[in-house]
Each structure stands twice: as structure tokens, then as C-alpha cells.
Amino acid sequence: MANNGDVKVGKVVQIIGPVVDVEFQDYLPPIYQALRITSKGFDLETPIDVVAEVQQHLGEGRVRAISMLPTDGMVRGMNVEDLGGPISVPVGGATLGRVMNVIGDPVDELGEVSSEVRSSIHRHAPSFDEQATELEMFETGIKVIDLVQPFLRGGKIGLFGGAGVGKTVLIMELINNVAKGRDGFSVFAGVGERTREGNDLLREMVESGVIKYGEGFNHHMEETGEFDLSKVDMESIKDSKVSLVYGQMTEPPGARLRVALSGLTVAEHFRDQGNDVLFFVDNIFRFTQAGSEVSALLGRMPSAVGYQPNLATEMGEMQERITSTKTGAITSIQAVYVPADDYTDPAPATTFAHLDAVTALSRQIVELGIYPAVDPLASNSRILDPQIVGDEHYNTAQEVKRILQRYKDLQDIIAILGLDELSEEDKQTVARARKIQRFFSQPFTVGEQFTGLKGEYVKVEDTIKGFREILDGKCDDMPEQAFYMVGTIEQARDKAKKMAAGA
């Protein structure tokens, strides 16, 4: 409660889980101010050094803060230091190849992130006149995405799906396809997802060369299989292409709520330096979920389905910052968990409003064994427009959708009467639709160890050519199994020949 020179000091007066009430005298820290709580002067086995963020003013010199780290062992009377501003994180080249947490501390055991520049995680979105408006397609090398819901460079893309339909694998493949072949930087924010997946992603990036730990480390890992951090070359790491910011499932809700902003702050800095940035978020639903937990802990009245009353505001403040300016672009790819596969749930429904393209993953397609399990009829993109992607691309995509929709309409008739009762035209539609469905499948580089198939990157023109040939009837004589898990139409032809030879 004293004022030590310029540092304002208060005392902890109440702790309820991650919520800490602090009392100051003659001073009140503003909302979003960062506070540091330490166990100095207390005899504890494990010293406490926790950062919290002011969320409410309670009156009589008291503020309510949300902790970014577990509060185990914290007691009333501990000293609280005002850090003089909001939570800030290191930004710039020093973050490349590194893994940080919500407050910018390293979690990869490679020492301090030695950046001269730190930025506050709370910033305003760029003003309207600073924003860029060009529309350009962003190639991903994944057939179903490039054809039916092309991604917009500098846009926001959502990958929607329930539990276990392949959102994280699709994000990892996109990182693999896009980060490897580009000069720009990528930032990955792991928001409330599995720690194991975070670890797998780091290893995947080191193995694929997106994160560079040096020749010595790679050689040692190839020989022994060990991930020995003592072999990391701190000079090589500067040539990495990606920064990772993690706030996993084990973290308190405050960290899961703010880690998306920490990752976004790193991405914004790269953009403002004139770079093209890819910003991956896995999973944006956990951001909403953490907001709901924090809201309940702060005693706010819940809204629909128990979500926080400021759900739209919280989401809007973050999403509006993910934008392209005249200096650089942020293309954001966000995985969105859909609770119980219910798209009307307020969390996914609020996210929809901010997106330029929607990639919907479907359990029915998983059941068919088709991966990536993207539902082309439920997915869309605002740049699937002949003036942006060209007439051939647009017409092919629309015709593919029309055939798939007709097949869907016929499924009840097929189930009741059988395929033989259909007209010749409908039989042809069904045969082509089933080939199209299987041709949408594609072996992934990140799935090589599961499928045993080499990953395929398919250029947009090859994708359009392949589907065009199916639509034009040039593949009517090929068995539908030949289209399953291949890249281009030429590979499907080779597979059909092998199947015919082996029959």
C-alpha cells in the first residue's frame, strides 16, 4: 500500500482461484494495467512471481485482477507491484524460432527472448484509411480449398468443425505448405489447445526447417532421435520463419483469454515493418471459452447459453486488429471448434460475421474416410467471383457444387429404391459426384507417418484442370477408387492403370 519511489505497491486482500483482489492507497491502477504479485518477505518453498491484469474497480482503493499464472500458494498480504502499463510482449526478429507464453516469457528453455522492442498486447485496430482493399487469391495447394473456397490474401479464414474432424492437422498442413514456400513470416497462437499438439507442432516445424535449430542439433536428432536443446545454435535460430505463442489447456483462463492478443501483437509488428504475415490461431473457440470463464469469475450476468454478455465486443476488438494495411498484410487462419456440431451456438455464430472464407469440416465426410474432411457445400468464400478468380475457376467450382448438391438430393431416392431406378442422366451425375468427392481427398505431408503416402501440393491450375476433366466426362471410364488420395488427375490416371493391370 506504499509508494516506493515511482513504483506503486499494493497488498493482496482476497484470492478466489485466478481472481485476485488488490488494495492500493492514494492510487488506482487503470483497467488492463499489469500487476506483479510476489512472495517477497514470505517464507515459501516455491517463491511466487505472478503477473495479473486489472479487470474491475471495486471502490475504496480496491481493484479486481485476473492472474495469468496459477495462484497456488498465494496468500493475503502479499506485495503487488504496478508495472506501469498493460502486459507487453517482445516483438520483432528476436521472437522468430522461439516459443513464448502470454506475458512474453520463453517456454522453450532456450533463455530470454532478447528483443529491444516490447509492445502492449492492447492496441487499437488500424483506422479505416490505413487499411488495404486489394483482392487477391492466396494459393494453399489443397484442392478442395483452392477450388471451392479460395482464401483471400490479407483476409480472415475460419476452419469450422467439431471434435476430432481434423482442424489442427489442416492448420499444420497449411503452415507446412505456405510457410515453407514463402518469404514472409508466420505467427502461431496456440489458444487453449492440447499441450501435446503444441509439442508436436514445434517438432514438426524443426524437422521441416521452418524453425532452424542448426546443423549440430539436426544431425544429433537424426542419429539419436533426441530433442537435445543443449545442441541448439542460437545464431541459426534467427533464420527461422515462425514465432510461436502458447497458452495451452493447463493455463488459467486469464492466460487463455490474452494469449491470442499476445500472438496478434507479434504479427502486427511484422506487418508494420512491411512484411506479409500469416497468423494462425488454434483455437479461437477457446478464446471465447476463456472469456466466458473470466466473465463468470468477475460476477457478470451470463448471456445466451451461459456465454459472457460482451461476447461480440470481445471478439470484434480482436478480429478488427487482424487486418491488412498499406504497409503489410496479415492473412489469418483460425480453427473454430463447434460445440456439439451446433453452428447456431453463439461462439461460432459470432465468429462467422468476421470471416472472408469459411472452411467447414464435416463428420459425415470423416465417416466416408475422405481427408481433408471439408464439406464443399457448407464452405464458402467471398472471393469466389469470376472478376477475381477468373471465369474458368468460378464456373468449374459452381458446376462441382451443382453436381454434389444433386447427388445429395438423390440420396434419399437411392436409399429407398436403389441406384437402378434412377434415370441415365442421374446415374451419370451420381458417378461423377462420387469421383469428385474422392478427388477432393489428398495426402498431406504432415500425415505421411499415418497414411504412408507422400504429401501432395497441387497448384490451382492443376486442380481446375482435374475437376474440369471429371465434369466433361473424360474420366467416366475410370473407377472411382482411382481418385482417392491422389494429387493431380494424371496421378489418378496412373492409379487407374495400375488397378486395371492388377485386376
Distance between the termini: 84 Å
Structural class: alpha/beta
Q: Mean pLDDT, nearest integer? A: 92
Rg on CA atoms, Å: 26 Å
* Integer tally of domains: 3
Strand content: 15-25%
Kindly state the number of beta strands: 19
Sheet with the most strands, sense and barrel status: 8 strands, mixed
Silhouette: elongated
The name of the CATH topology of the largest domain is Rossmann fold
Can you offer a commentary on this structure?
With 503 residues, the chain is α/β, with parallel strands linked by helices. The protein folds into three domains: 3-86, Thrombin, subunit H (Beta Barrel), CATH 2.40.10; 137-205 and 241-383, Rossmann fold (3-Layer(aba) Sandwich), CATH 3.40.50; 391-502, Bovine Mitochondrial F1-atpase, Atp Synthase Beta Chain, Chain D, domain 3 (Bovine Mitochondrial F1-ATPase, ATP Synthase Beta Chain, Chain D, domain3). Helices cover 35% and strands 19% of the residues. It contains 15 helices and 19 strands. The chain has helices spanning 143-148, 167-180, 195-208, 215-224, 253-272, 284-297, 311-319, 346-352, 363-367, 386-389, 391-417, 424-439, 448-451, 460-471, 489-502; strands at 3-4, 7-16, 19-23, 34-38, 49-59, 62-67, 79-82, 88-90, 99-100, 118-120, 137-138, 151-152, 156-161, 185-191, 242-247, 276-282, 329-337, 357-360, 380-381. It has an eight-stranded mixed beta sheet with strand order 9-15-14-16-17-13-18-19, with helices on both faces. The longest helix is centred in the last third of the chain and has 27 residues, at 391-417. The radius of gyration is 26 Å and the shape is elongated. The termini are far apart. The model has no long low-confidence stretch (mean pLDDT 92).
